[in-house]
Design brief:
It is a single chain. The chain has about 230 residues and is mainly α. Helices cover about 75% and strands about 5% of the residues. The chain is built from 8 helices and 3 strands; from the N terminus they run βααααααααββ.
């Protein structure tokens, strides 16, 4: 009777810490800026909304710099794109053009994911660390089984779908309806893509005989300690 070889085991942070880390990034890089824009638009008009949203992004960068914390790639990318959007929006005074511009950014992001994955240096791998604290051992494993390349193709397709949906909403709904539907549908699309990404991750790890070990009860305080690496290798 054959005995299955022991699995590779990679220690992970506590799930609550991972969820909290990802939620904070999404909150400050996406949800709150949209809320700031919508509130300012309702109270003071388009130009004020554009300026206040731009200030939000740069205030976030300044605060992180003053606290000597690592700069989030997602926030830096958002600040650059927001600067271009604000310039065009203030110059033209057109809400349509202001919201149409991210379509080009979305398509550019999708293209960057695809091109960097084909070049063997997936941009998605660098951005993933902004949202999830990935242990070094797991990063190495995912590099080896080309997870980031496969995930790049998946997220590139999502961004293309997002861009197409944004254009459709802009051309077929009012500004208020657009803001509401965009705020509701974008997270749903992103959530579905995350779910598929997790399924892909689990399938690749299972194929490679790798198991993720999560902290038990009482170990939540050690959630973000450096990973201990692979253990149980036989």
């Amino acid at each position: 009777m054959s005995v299955a070889p022991p699995a590779h085991v990679i220690d992970m942070a506590h799930p609550r810490a991972i969820a909290s880390h990802a939620a904070r990034t999404v909150l400050f890089a996406s949800v709150l800026p949209m809320a700031v824009f919508y509130a300012a638009l309702s109270i003071a008009g388009l130009n004020a909304a554009i300026v206040l949203t731009l200030c939000w992004y740069y205030a976030g960068l300044v605060v992180r710099r003053l606290r000597k914390r690592p700069m989030l790639g997602a926030t830096m990318l958002g600040a650059v794109l927001m600067t271009v959007r604000a310039g065009v929006g203030l110059w033209t005074g057109s809400a349509f053009l202001y919201f149409l511009q991210p379509v080009a950014g979305t398509v550019a992001t999708a293209t960057s994911f695809a091109v960097t994955a084909l070049a063997g240096r997936p941009l998605l791998e660098h951005l993933a660390h902004d949202f999830v604290p990935v242990p070094a051992a797991l990063s190495e494993q995912l590099r080896g089984n080309r997870f980031f390349s496969y995930a790049s193709a998946l997220w590139a397709a999502m961004y293309v779908a997002n861009a197409a949906g944004t254009v459709w909403l802009l051309t077929n709904s009012s500004l208020g309806a657009f803001l509401l539907l965009k705020t509701l549908l974008s997270p749903l699309l992103t959530g579905a893509t995350i779910a598929v990404t997790v399924l892909l991750l689990r399938r690749l790890l299972r194929r490679d005989g790798v198991r993720l070990r999560w902290p038990g009860r009482g170990e939540a305080t050690a959630a973000l300690r450096p990973a201990t690496g692979l253990s149980g290798i036989g």
